[in-house]
Amino acid sequence: MHVQLREINGDDIQSINRWRADRALVDHLCGAYRYVSPEVDRQWFATYLGARANNVRLAITVGHNELIGVVYLLGIDWLNRSAEFAIQIGSENWRSKGVGSIATKAILNHAFHDLNLHRIYLTVLADNERAIRLYAKLGFVDEGRYRQAIFKNGAYRDIVQMAILRDEFVMGDPPHARIESSQRLLD
Fold this sequence. Notes:
It holds the Pfam family Acetyltransf_3. InterPro entries: Acyl_CoA_acyltransferase, GNAT_dom. It comes from Pararobbsia alpina. The protein is an alpha+beta fold. The chain has a single domain, classed as Aminopeptidase (3-Layer(aba) Sandwich), CATH 3.40.630. The chain is 26% helix and 35% strand. The chain has an eight-stranded mixed β-sheet, with helices on one face. Helix 1 crosses helix 3. The longest helix is centred in the middle third of the chain and has 16 residues. The two termini are 30 Å apart.
């Protein structure tokens, strides 16, 4: 499987907007389900373009640039060398195929070896056991639980905080993903 990561672009907004409207997908994420119009996502993208110095937003593609998901480093703190990680495999046909693992390894490699970050953290729903197992397998450590921190589907749910430090990251086999134009990401 040939997975590539590239910076998101305006052509990706339609797919990203469709994924935000997929309640079954959003139910597995920490964010709340909201109705988001394509215009709001176009404005979101324009805002991102103005904040690229502190955010890396990459499209996950397969084959001939087929967009199947996104992976992000958000709120990069250049003093403390940390960032928040987020991933979404939007294309249902590509979920549970190993793409998330490949994309996560690739962006962690980029974070630690290209951007010289020290700590990458994430939050995940406590009942998303599959995601927690994947993150632990990749080296993320459970740092604690936010009890009843998010309201989803009529109930309060716990969130688990996990993080990985640069010296805990083991690249292992090549991630089989390539990040296009990583130098551009710092422009």
